Amino acid sequence: MSSAAANHSESEGPSALLRPPGQSKGIRVQVRDLKKSFRKVVALDRISFEVNPGEVFVIMGPSGSGKTVLLKHLIGLESPDSGQIEIDGEPVSSRRPSRCRMAMVFQSGALLNSLTVGENVGLYLAEHRLKTAPQITGIVAEKLKLVGLQGMEDRYPNELSGGMKKRVGIARALVMEPNLILYDEPTSELDPISAFTIAEHIVLLKRQYQVTSIVVTHDRDLAFGIADRLALIHLGKILTVGTPAQVKASTDPMVQKFLNIEFNF
């Protein structure tokens, strides 16, 4: 799977991926009774939740809670033992044309080190010959400006900080004018200032594009800072779903343990 994958309607054609800023609209995601086991280990245990169009929905939990397995199901890399995921009312496993334009921002950025920043951002357009070279140059410049990296087209990934690489990954996703963006641990291994910058961009893009955003993270500060609603997952089960205030008010002991744990060495 490419680092910014999309599934678009054959009836709309490639130009549907390149609508002007502000034209993208978020779509609904529904997860129903999702179960997945690997041998005798239950990874997902009847997971259910719904993501509303245009909201930032955060899936939060500690390492080993099932977040990564759930993310793989959302993008179609894993098939459930039972249950179903629907995006825009259509099963993820379906091969029928879909109105969904999905983009993925990977934890590592997943940039190609042999390509410049500009080439990485414009790779999808160039590979599929969706635009001319001058048009791609303009689109790349526009998306890099959106993430605060204007003028960085000729840099290489090894010349960038971790936070800059993640912003390049966001710019590459935006090239496709998605209506659903999935973020995998977007602030992992970042310093507090870089993490705050990434959080700002996630919220800004939601406001500007009305895009549906699903963020998988173990970062409590990020989760409560950007989420319209969030789900806390532990050992493959959803403990609670709600607004940040509702989750903080949960009386579930496991929820409170995760939210209030402190490290004092």
Describe this structure in words.
The chain is α/β, with parallel strands linked by helices and 265 residues long. The chain has a domain of 177 residues: P-loop containing nucleotide triphosphate hydrolases (Rossmann fold). It has a 6-stranded mixed beta sheet with strand order 6-7-8-3-9-10, sandwiched between helices. The longest helix is centred in the C-terminal third of the chain and has 18 residues. The N terminus is likely disordered.
CATH class of the domain at 14-108 and 179-260: Alpha Beta
User: Main beta sheet, described?
Assistant: 6 strands, mixed
Counting DSSP H or I runs of 4 or more residues, the number of helices is 9
State the distance separating the first and last CA atoms. Answer: 42 Å
> What is the N-to-C order of secondary-structure elements (H for helix, E for strand)?
EEEHEEEHHHHEHEHEEHH
Within CATH, the superfamily of the domain at 14-108 and 179-260 carries the name P-loop containing nucleotide triphosphate hydrolases
Structural class: alpha/beta
As a percent range, the share of strand residues is 15-25%
In the CATH hierarchy, what is the architecture of the domain at 14-108 and 179-260 at level 2? Answer: 3-Layer(aba) Sandwich
The value of Rg in angstroms is 18 Å
How are the strands ordered across the major sheet? 6-7-8-3-9-10
The whole-number mean of residue pLDDT values reads 83
Shape: globular
As for the CATH topology of the domain at 14-108 and 179-260, it is Rossmann fold
Give the SSE layout.
Elements: E1 29-38, E2 41-51, E3 56-60, H1 67-74, E4 82-87, E5 90-91, E6 102-105, H2 117-121, H3 123-127, H4 133-146, H5 162-174, E7 180-184, H6 192-209, E8 212-217, H7 220-226, E9 229-234, E10 237-242, H8 244-248, H9 253-260
Parallel strand pairs: 3-8, 3-9, 6-7, 7-8
Antiparallel strand pairs: 1-2, 1-4, 4-5, 9-10
Helix pairs in contact: 4-5, 5-6
